[in-house]
């Protein structure tokens, strides 16, 4: 039996979501027919909304009618906008004890000497400044595997996943307060990341972000080897020196062995990009189910993208393990309000043109769907951008909504696995952490099957429940953590997506 043409997510909702494009006359609810063409993933009114009246989806406010809306009409940016409304933060009222499993799942991980567990085994080349980016790329290119030609300069080192250069566009021409601290915290997080066996950082020599200062501030002595181009004597000598370093450590890096470790060793980053009207119905809730499973098995999940939680933060504060934790999240929202105001922007400017084409209207609607990635577990901690995540359970990290910047912060915080949901079709990787791509709808999955790991459109098609899809994602997480390659890894994604958050003025 075919599923109905629309989805109503909550009894209080005054709108339904189109499973596919609806033609005029399509039944929407009892006695309500579509009055016009409604694109797939978009909203249609099933009751009248007067000007200024709240419009609800998920049982929550996603906006307010900017004109009178009759039943059967398309509800989108032309008749739905932002407005002020009160939120009840009710700190901790929905927090409940975690129901941990009796026999936690395991995976085949790599245990490092410091006790941390890796899911991949890379050699990393970081840069202190943009001025050394090209040289870092030259070094990595010497060891680059080509997934299409089959050329493999690391054929003798099968346990090494690759040599990756992670470059950026800052490091100088910057103020030395918070902007420099954030950059160094990000680089320090990558230098300590368990998915790197060895790390070298290349600099120019005269930049603001001096390698010595980075090593001292982030306590990286003995973990990070530094070289700067000016001291080494130029490009050729620096490349030769860095290549020599990599060759010297390859044999040691190759000696790693995977062993059985508990799922509690996993720290999973939750990301979404290229979202659509189905993201909050299929892939995000399914990832939320998988997140809850990982938490029950003792692991940690990191939700971020603060601007894409705006308007839904009151639902997370209700799950806060303590009032202090909930208040940290609210303080972040106030900071972002002031930040966007100072920059002449608005929080509602967040949904991209692709998001809106896919059916998302306001940041409130996008946030309510995005937060579903974190399931229903207690919010146990709120951390700064790129700050190390040590708590087990659901943690929120302050990051921008721009996917590469948010993901970079999560990986710097220690995420050794990532799940990335998309409705429009984002292609993304985040070395040294493997990225599992979750498609929200079947047509896009079939169109981009080479890039998508999981089709969550089965939920919309009526073939699978949210919990069943979440279980499937959880099992893939364990296999991926054990070494199974993701689709993005097959294309060698993940180096160009490294993007530390740039704060402050460029001088």
Q: Could you give a short description of this structure?
A:
The chain is of the alpha/beta class and 507 residues long.
**Given this structure, which CATH class of the largest domain is correct?**
Alpha Beta
Residue windows where pLDDT falls under 50 for at least 5 positions:
none
DSSP strand (E) fraction? 15-25%
SSE class: alpha/beta
Cross-sheet strand order for the largest sheet: 19-20-18-17-21-22-23
End-to-end separation in angstroms reads: 63 Å
Shape: globular
Q: How much helical structure, as a percent, in the residues?
A: 25-40%
**How many beta-strand elements?**
23
The overall average pLDDT, rounded, is 95
Number of domains: 3
Task: Examine the secondary-structure arrangement and name the CATH architecture of the largest domain.
Answer: 3-Layer(aba) Sandwich
User: What value does the Rg take, in angstroms?
Assistant: 24 Å
Per CATH, what is the topology of the largest domain?
Rossmann fold
Largest sheet data: 7 strands, parallel
Oligomer: single chain
Number of helices: 15
